[in-house]
């Protein structure tokens, strides 16, 4: 028998008297596709070129002055080009997976074609990211309660920016430059000074500096915020120029805990999702900073370049100094690099007044079996014995530790040169 099909055509405006079944409920809205979400802030080698991490070393004015080639200074994030007596924005850089450590072709921090300008610019001009900026040397732009221009102990000696999205993913940018950055968005520009590298009143581009950017996955932003709090970094959650809070509730609560000094002495030591290790020294733990790093890494011997100036901590053999604390382990030898080398040029790596000095804070393992490179906040200034709270011993800061053979080879070669003599 043939099957008879009944076809009902519902014209617009027609009733459904013959069907008393209620219409099915509307399905819940689908979550947005992942590619429809705003991208998380990331380390960028240039605009739209994200990488897991990158690092840049800016030369001092005595070794490689001005900018590379015909590049001219600009101020894309606020300020005017300063008439510094001496400056350098020439730089070396490398990133995860290559290229090898090599020269940049422009002016560091001046546009979206260089790693620093691209990474900072996505936050400053993008308008969608949340951020925290910290710096113990804002020089009253903005003013920090309890500080006169700059903030000393027990505030942390640390500088940088953390930025994230609604999903809690983002980037941390460690810098060693006084007075930069000091505003996180073009919607809240810096008042009283510039906000572009080389365009602020303080000539922070006369001496060497380092910059390190790292991608942060889910959970990492909270870990970094806890490390920042432990280090007593200088910021102000109530000032939208340097803090824009938002995103997951746990992150918002951690941001609100910043902007104060802490009295604890516990070192934090975490491995972030990308494999990078993060160590945080609290201000109240009165020990020499780079001995602490070595001990935390199991006694790895280090050669360290930092702002090495009075009160200098001399090169020291392996073993715990008098200024030490129970439970920290035993540090390996810590050698102070006083010169480095790039090509045929000798680089000054001491601290002090002049164009041949270094304000980057970099350590490399001298054990070939441990290809460790460390980017830190802290100078090797203070004491091995005597006044254990002296200088950087009595301050906090962060140290990012990478175990990468190519990175270690590049920075070991850069730090090759003379060293400071040992001392008590």
Range of strand content:
15-25%
Please state the structural category. alpha+beta
Question: Which blocks of ≥5 consecutive residues have pLDDT under 50?
Answer: 1-35
- If you average the pLDDT, what whole number results? 92
Elements, N to C (H/E): EEEHEEEEHEHEEHEEEEEEEH
Number of strands: 17
Number of separate helices: 5
**Approximate shape:** globular
Q: What proportion of the residues is helical, as a percent range?
A: 10-25%
How many angstroms separate the termini? 108 Å
Major sheet: arrangement of strands: 3-2-1-7-6-5-4-8
> What kind of sheet is the major sheet?
8 strands, antiparallel
Radius of gyration: 25 Å
Number of structural domains: 1
Keywords:
alpha+beta, hydrolase, 424 residues, 7-stranded mixed β-sheet, 5 helices, DNase_II, Deoxyribonuclease II family protein
Report on the structure:
It is a single chain. Residues 1-35 have low confidence and may be disordered. It is built from five helices and 17 strands. With 424 residues, it is an alpha+beta fold.
What's the quick description here?
The protein has 424 residues and is α+β, with helices and mostly antiparallel strands. It has helices at 115-124, 220-230, 249-256, 289-296, 405-414, and strands at residues 53-58, 91-95, 102-103, 130-135, 159-164, 170-175, 209-216, 243-244, 268-271, 277-281, 302-305, 334-336, 339-342, 345-348, 362-365, 372-376, 397-403.
